[in-house]
Amino acid sequence: MLKQDLIFRNPMRLMGHETEDILPAGGFGAVLARAGLGKTAILVQLALDSLLQSKNVLHISLEDPVKKVCLWYEEVFRNIATQYHVQQIDQIWEAILPYRLVMTFNVDSFSVPKLEERLAELTEQNIFMPQIILIDGLPFDETVRASLTDLKSLAERYSLRIWFTVRTHRHEAPGPDGMPAPLLNIADLFEVAIQLSPEGKDIYLKALKGRHSSSDDPALFLDPSTMLIKDKSKD
Amino acid sequence: MKNDIGKVRNIGISAHIDSGKTTLTERILYYTKRIHAIHDVKGKDGVGATMDSMELEKERGITIASAATFCEWQGHEINIIDTPGHVDFTIEVERSLRVLDGAVLVLCSVGGVQSQSITVDQQMKRYKVPCMAFVNKCDRSGANPFRVISQLREKLGHNAVAMQIPIGLEADLKGVVDLITMKAVYFDGDNGENIRFEDIPENLLSEATEKREELIDAASMFSDELMEAALEDAVTEDLLLSAIRKGTLTREMTPVFMGSAYKNKGIQPLLDAVTTLLPCPADVENRALDLDNDESEVILSGDTGNPMVALAFKLEDGQYGQLTYIRAYQGNLAKGDTVINVRTGKKVKIGRVVRMHANQMEDIDNIAAGYIGALFGIDCASGDTFVSPGINLTMTSMYVPEPVISLAITPKDHKAEINMSKALNRFSKEDPTFKTFVSEETGDTIISGMGELHLEVYIERMRREYDAEVTTGAPRVAYRETITRTAEFNYTHKKQTGGSGQYGRVAGYIEPISEEEFVFESKITGGAIPTQFIPACEKGFRNCLAKGPKMEFPVTGIKIVINDGASHAVDSSEMAFQAAARGAFLEGYGKARPVIHEPIMKVVVETPTEFQGGAMGSLNQRRGMIVGSQDEGPMSVIEAQVPLAEMFGYSTVLRSLTQGKAQFTMEFATYKQVPKAIAEELIKKAAEEKKNVA
Asked: Which is an annotated Pfam family here (chain B) (predicted)?
């Protein structure tokens, strides 16, 4: 099994993005869900999709320590490999690891200037040049617009694609267009938004914004045992 | 010697280097009246702390060997194992944890949970050692015990709960408030030996009440009785302590004490807690393996009436010969007994039995189950199990990592040569991670171990303790060879040069495996190779493993399957098939894309945030793969995987990069393929060396 084969089999492909990136350069994507539904699992699948294509991914977690983030990757990767009967997973794993860098901050101490400073250190010394950044655990409160605007200009300058996890709450009513509360006033900054919504026992993926937000949405859901994206129609 | 197992505590004091555990032990020995004067670790008086019995330890201010020592407190007998704090000596730490029932994790109130604390904590987890924490150095500027408690929770995942709050901090540290008795405790006298209880100072009352509530909340998880009492506001000291003890024994709670060993504050309450909160040997379940029953696990009873089972966990060369530190797990090990060393099967007669107090000793008659003592004149290796005749149990073998670095040593003169061999013999018995052998090619004596410092310390010890001056070569990394794809072989060994000929044909394939070092499988059918020659084939293949054809490094991770062959009625012999296997190996190996693997170390650097970029750069330059960085306020922790070959002298580099403010730990992680460019360099270097030898 070659890395190439795994790329074509990995669950992100189910989202209808066969070859190109989901986000344009400088673009923002959001994975929205209530606590505990699998935002991080989706984020890690997005990351693995890029890692398999030899793209540098910087994973920033404001909640978990480095060790736990790494465990997420191992777990999801192992599940993908088992799901698609991939052999020689150790070799593929070794091959993709150098494309990943994990950074963790305390929520309170994280700021865009700080991130920029870190990025400068990494790129100036040629240690790591991220192409995709994942930010897990950024609180989407009233002040977030300012940070996001700064991040947007950073993304454009470095041609980065940035994915965020956004926690929604049951008690917050969505906007008239169905946009969940945390994104209401900032939706314009995002190119893609995917929501995880539980229906009965299953957790479905709904595209709120982006190319596939129309009615031809495939019935994608998260397999609760592996947390991988699956296509119900092909089940 | 008493025999009340409920009043015995075998504890370890584990910590990061320089967090003051030797000073703490020294104070414990002073208050328990085992010593009558206090000496500092890096003592100006030239005596040094009592636990650091080796001269070298005294000089460097670090603890290398874990001396076991005994003391008494409030009617309890406490055995303390002082453990080394540097990661290079972790076999010592692991060995002590194996014989301990509980541990005190010492943390610096300024440095907090550092990388070594994380390693030590993982080891404690592995051996399920219940522990409590002591936040030391509360007198230092920048001390913040509550930050350390939150680090214990965040970094180590402990349910850490304060048992005390400090009265004053830094230079103003006066004492502690005990949250169980709700009293202020002060330590008077020149050496803090007089304890004075007072009411809690007015300004600390609300904080103390709040922290006590937190403590009760946490403890009530382990006792319904306490929870009810808390609701009715009727919590008693006993109820609270027994709930905390319950949580501590199951490792679900870590009580945290605080003070300053150097300033003689907070030690006696810690000793009280050792007796009230940590387990006695009977609280801990110990298992052995039954060698007569396919190594099935047996739970040891801890009863002194049952057959004896004891583990030798440390050896020391003393004035009067070898001293063997031993822990009895079951039965009674008495003077004059005849016991069996399970590893060698030899009978051993127990001569002198002693109890150690650092480097002084006291004669005793026996070591009962649960106790730690030492034997004289017993020839054994560290990790050996001793049992009463009639049973065949062995204590679970300890996890021993393979050495990753080696060094050639040459004695300066004949006297040094004799002493060196004595020293090496001793060290390799004492420390299973330290190995020594003579290189067949160069005739050099090679020592190998777990890191640069590990070997350096042994070289120093050779010089000081054995008067053996040696010169050392450059450190060498333990490379390995392996293959990356399946390849077939079909080799015929034929020789007819007069006399009886040699004939054997071996065919099959060779493939990479990751789970095991070497697997041999015969799929020969129809007697293509007669059954009696199959073992010779295996032997032939096996003999090729020690020196790989590519670079002469050991070959690992290969599977050999033979499925065809041929023999000759007269000319085939074991020797012929061994030679055929060797030829087959060379043929298959060459086609199977052999590569060189090198040891990769997990390196964790703790640095002030402003030097993060520099530290990362330094790891990157060393072919390191940065796994991640963790921002922790003013400090930042970088985790990376770096080839060992690139890490020589890194401590100096890191020091100069960060004004000496960063530190790092390193442990073996895995073996990985050497990049092509580096492999070529290695091949070139090896060829040059060969030329020089020739």
From this structure: EFG_C
